Amino acid sequence: MAFPITRARRLRRTELVRSMVRETRLAPSDFIYPLFVCPGEGVKREIGAMPGNYQLSVDCLVEECREVASAGVPAVILFGLPETKDPEGSGAYAEDGIVQRAMRAVKREVPKLLVIGDVCLCEYTSHGHCGRIVDGEVDNDSTLELLARAAVAQARAGADIVAPSDMMDGRVAAIRRALDESGFTQTPILAYAAKFASVFYGPFREAAESAPQFGDRLGYQMDPANQREALKEIALDVEEGADIIMVKPAMPYLDIIYRARQEFRLPVAAYQVSGEYSMIVAAGRNGWLDCERAMWESLTAIKRAGADLILTYFAKEAARRL
Ligand SMILES: [Zn+2]
Q1: 147: CA distance to ligand 1 center in Å?
Q2: How far apart are CA 114 and CA 107, in angstroms?
Q3: pLDDT tens-place string over residues 9-35
Q4: What pLDDT was estimated at residue 261?
Q5: CB atoms < 10 A from the CB of 303, how many?
Q6: Is residue 1 predicted with pLDDT exceeding 90?
Q7: pTM of the full predicted structure?
Q8: Is 248 a catalytic residue?
Q9: Among residues 44, 107, 195, 303, which one is catalytic?
Q10: Which of 78, 116, 175, 308 is the most buried (most CB within 10 A)?
């Protein structure tokens, strides 16, 4: 039944009709808010390339978490800036590491907020890589033990979910085993399953002070050109015991999110990364596009592609406006 019997525009005439036939709707419960915790007290330092985002000392982080929770965002994911760094990234798994201290404080002061720990070494290593360096290379197998220790330290500090982001082979299995052996059989793993070596992480490296001091991450993060390999990476993490799978970044990788949703039964998370956020905010500030509408359109597109959960620096603002 073609035109003139069929007229697609009939369902677009008014906002009332459009809202009735809308296929994708955002809700505050879709969002996870990334936060950066740093040493000190009363510290709230804005991140230059990510306006509206801050490095926060534990006390300020707790305040921020109260606001996030009252906006209706159910979860935060924490990244740490340690006092000192060393080649083995020991701040990632120290009992009193910066993220572990932050978790204890947030779980005590804002118990209704779900706290996710990003599990990686790059914020804590002096060389800025995500694993141990052996003979000038990131060594896979000896890194697994350190990642497992970091996940257990976070679980002990109250993490509700641990989220390995390093892209070492076998890390999900190693973390699952270590959590179970330490009694954390109920702590889920959100795996950064398909994490691409993306230029869109640029602003984050200022935020987390985690830029590699030599080389790049192409030896462990994925080639942006590869879709089949992303599905293989996700399948491996699922086999190893991941509870939620993640695609990162989000908007340049909507095809990967879509295929992950179609081919796997687990919840799919997508990370709208720092560069995606910064581009929208910067263009908005220049008057080149409407920042708020770009926020809604980008988040809706990520959900429409199949993401059940969205990690986004817009989480607090979006939840407030919903
Ligand atoms: Zn890392």
Answers
A1: 10
A2: 8
A3: 999 999 999 999 999 999 999 999 999
A4: 98
A5: 20
A6: no
A7: 0.97
A8: yes
A9: 195
A10: 175
Q: How far is the CA of 75 from the centre of ligand 1 (A)?
A: 21
Look at the block and give the residue holding tokens 């330092």: 45
Residue type present at position 124: Y
Cα 237 → chain centroid: 16
Residue 4 token pair? 């003139």
Beta strands in the chain (DSSP E): 31-37, 44-46, 54-56, 75-80, 114-119, 132-134, 137-139, 161-164, 190-195, 244-248, 268-272, 309-312
pLDDT at site 210:
85
Give the tens place of pLDDT for each residue, 312-322.
999 999 999 99
195 is catalytic: yes
**In sequence order, what are the residues at sequence separation of 6 or more whose Cβ sits closer than 8 angstroms to the Cβ of residue 32?**
73, 74, 75, 76, 77, 116, 269, 309, 310, 311, 312, 315
Say yes or no to pLDDT of 205 above 90. Answer: no
Report the 10 Å Cβ neighbour count for 82.
21
Task: Give yes or no for a contact between 194 and 233, defined as CB atoms under 8 angstroms apart.
Answer: yes
Instruction: Render pLDDT for 231-266 as a digit per residue (tens, 0 to 9).
Output: 999 999 999 999 999 999 999 999 999 999 999 999
Q: Separation of 284 CA from ligand 1 center, angstroms?
A: 30
Q: Pick from 261, 281, 313, 228: which is nearest to 36 by CA?
A: 313
How far, in Å, is the centroid of ligand 1 from the Cα of 44?
Answer: 23
Residue 244's pLDDT is 98
**Is the Cβ–Cβ distance between 310 and 269 less than 8 Å?**
yes
In the structure, ligand 1 is a single-atom ion and the residues with CB under 5 Å from it are: 120, 122, 130
Q: Which residue has the tokens 């204890």?
A: 104
Tokens found for residue 3: 């035109």
Q: Which of 85, 248, 303, 316 is catalytic?
A: 248
Q: 130 CA to middle of ligand 1, Å?
A: 4
Going from the Cα of 166 to the center of ligand 1, the distance in angstroms, rounded, reads 5
